[in-house]
Specification:
Seminal Fluid Protein  PDC-109 (Domain B); globular; 421 residues; alpha/beta; 18% strand; 14 helices; single chain; ten-stranded mixed beta sheet; 2 domains; TIM Barrel; three-stranded antiparallel beta sheet
C-alpha cells in the first residue's frame, strides 16, 4: 500500500559525496576561463565512441575528472583492463535549465571533459555520464517538465556523443515528487529518442532494500511505463556492516522490484544493479577487497544487470597514515592502486592484467587489529567520554546516547570515530 506521507526519518545523507563533487570545480572553471580564448580554437571534439557491449557500461566505475586529484584514466585502463567510466556529475547551472559539470562549468564552454573522453576513446574505451548525485540542484528541479528536462540532458548526449547515461537520483531531489516525475520522464524520452541508449537509474539503498522515496521513484517509473536497463541501489551509508548486509539488501530490493513491476525473481535480478563505495564511507563503514569480492560473487551468481562503485578517484591507498579519515582521493584502507576497479573489470567478463605497478604509497600500518575497548551494545546507555569498539574501530561518545549505532553515526551523530583498533 502506498503511503500518503513520507516517514519521519529518510535515508541518511551522503555529505561527503556532495563535497567531493564541488571541491575543485570552481578552480578548474577559473582556469578554463583563462584558457578559453586558446581552447576555443584548439579543443577537439571527443573521438568517436568505441563499440562496446553493454557489459562495460554496466561495470563503469564513477570518475570525477575535475575534482579529488583525478587519476589518469588511460593509466587506469592499462593497469586494470577497464574500458568504460562513469563521469560525474551533471547538475543545473544555478537555477537554470542548463546542464553544467558540478553545477558551475557549463557544457557549452567545457574543454576539460572532451580531452578526457578523447583519451579514453583513443584507447578503445568509452564513457557514460552521470546526472544528479547527492546535493546540488538538478535539472528535474529547475526545468519544469519532463520534456524540458530531457532537452537539457539531450545537449549532454549530443555534445559528448554518448551511448550511455546514468540518473543518480538522491537527496534532496528524490524527496521532490515533481522533480522525480521530470527526471523519470526525461529518462523515458531520451530512451525513445536515442535508440540503443544505455540508461541506468541509481538511488539510495537501505537495509530494507531501498527507502520510501526509492519505492515512490519506482512507482513513478511504473506509472510512466518506463523500464531502464537497470535500477541500482547504493548499499552504504545506512548502517551496513560488511558484504553480508549488502547482499541482504539486494535480495530485499529484488523483492521490491518483483512487487512493483510484477516481475519474476530472475527478471527482477536482470533489471537490478549495485553501486558500492570502496574503503571508508561517509558513515565510517568499511568495505575492503574481500567485501567487493563477496558482492561480485553474488552479482554474477544472480545475474545482476550492473556492478559498479564510487569512485576511481578513491581507488588508491592514502599517503602516510592508511586511514586518515574520509577522503575523496583515497580509500582509507590498505590496498594497491586500482584494486577495486579490477572487480568491475571481472564483472564485465574480462580478466584484469596479472601484473601491476607497485603502489606508490606502500602500507605504513597494519590492518585493524584486536579491539581492547568494550564492544558497543544497543541496550547500554553511554555518556560523554565513554569508549567502545565496533566493527574493528574505536569510538567515544560525544554526549548521552542509547541504541545509536556508532558506524552509522556520521559527522553529526553522538559517536566520534577514533580510528581502527
Amino acid at each position: 500500500m502506498e503511503r500518503a506521507t513520507p516517514p519521519p526519518s529518510p535515508t541518511p545523507a551522503r555529505p561527503a559525496r556532495h563535497r567531493r563533487r564541488r571541491g575543485a570545480v570552481g578552480l578548474l572553471s577559473a582556469l578554463g576561463l583563462l584558457a578559453g580564448a586558446v581552447a576555443a580554437f584548439t579543443a577537439a571534439e571527443p573521438a568517436t565512441a568505441a563499440t562496446l557491449g553493454s557489459n562495460w557500461y554496466a561495470s563503469a566505475p564513477y570518475l570525477m575528472p575535475e575534482d579529488n586529484s583525478p587519476p589518469d584514466a588511460a593509466a587506469v585502463m592499462d593497469a586494470t583492463g577497464q574500458k568504460a567510466f562513469q563521469l560525474a556529475f551533471i547538475l543545473a547551472q544555478g537555477n537554470s535549465c542548463s546542464p553544467a559539470w558540478g553545477g558551475t562549468s557549463s557544457i557549452d564552454s567545457d574543454t576539460t571533459m572532451p580531452a578526457v573522453i578523447k583519451k579514453i576513446r583513443d584507447k578503445g574505451g568509452d564513457v557514460s555520464v552521470s546526472v544528479g548525485g547527492y546535493g546540488g540542484t538538478k535539472l528535474g528541479q529547475t526545468c519544469g517538465t519532463p520534456e524540458a528536462t530531457a532537452a537539457g540532458y539531450q545537449k549532454v548526449i549530443t555534445k559528448y556523443g554518448l551511448k550511455a547515461i546514468d540518473f543518480d537520483l538522491e537527496e534532496p531531489e528524490y524527496e521532490n515528487t515533481a522533480a522525480i516525475h521530470n527526471e523519470i520522464g526525461a529518462a523515458r524520452i531520451l530512451q525513445q529518442n536515442n535508440p540503443g541508449l544505455y540508461v541506468s537509474i541509481t538511488t539510495a539503498g537501505t537495509n530494507a532494500g531501498t527507502g520510501w522515496f526509492g519505492t515512490q521513484m519506482l512507482n513513478e517509473a511504473k506509472s510512466q511505463g518506463f523500464t531502464p536497463n537497470n535500477y541500482s541501489i547504493m548499499p552504504f551509508d545506512g548502517g551496513f556492516n560488511g558484504a553480508a548486509a549488502q547482499t541482504d539488501a539486494l535480495v530485499k530490493f529484488n523483492q521490491i522490484l518483483q512487487t512493483t513491476f510484477g516481475w519474476t525473481e530472475a527478471n527482477a535480478y536482470a533489471h537490478e544493479g549495485v553501486s558500492l563505495m570502496n574503503g571508508r564511507t561517509d558513515a565510517a563503514e568499511y568495505f575492503r577487497q574481500a567485501d567487493f569480492q563477496t558482492v561480485l560473487d553474488f552479482a554474477t551468481a544472480h545475474k545482476l544487470a550492473r556492478y559498479t562503485y564510487w569512485s576511481v578517484n578513491r581507488d588508491r591507498q592514502c599517503p602516510g597514515t592508511v586511514d586518515p579519515g574520509l577522503s575523496g582521493s583515497c580509500s582509507s584502507v590498505a590496498q594497491n592502486d586500482w584494486d577495486f576497479t579490477k572487480f568491475t573489470v571481472k564483472f564485465a567478463g574480462a580478466t584484469p592484467p596479472t601484473t601491476q605497478p607497485p603502489t606508490s604509497n606502500p602500507p605504513t600500518s597494519n590492518p585493524p587489529g584486536t579491539c581492547t575497548d568494550p564492544a558497543w551494545s544497543a541496550t547500554t546507555t553511554y555518556t560523554a567520554g565513554n569508549k567502545v569498539s565496533y566493527n574493528s574501530h574505536k569510538y567515544h561518545a560525544k554526549w548521552w546516547t542509547l541504541n545509536e549505532n556508532p558506524a552509522s553515526s556520521g559527522q553529526w551523530g553522538p559517536w566520534a570515530d577514533d580510528g581502527p583498533c
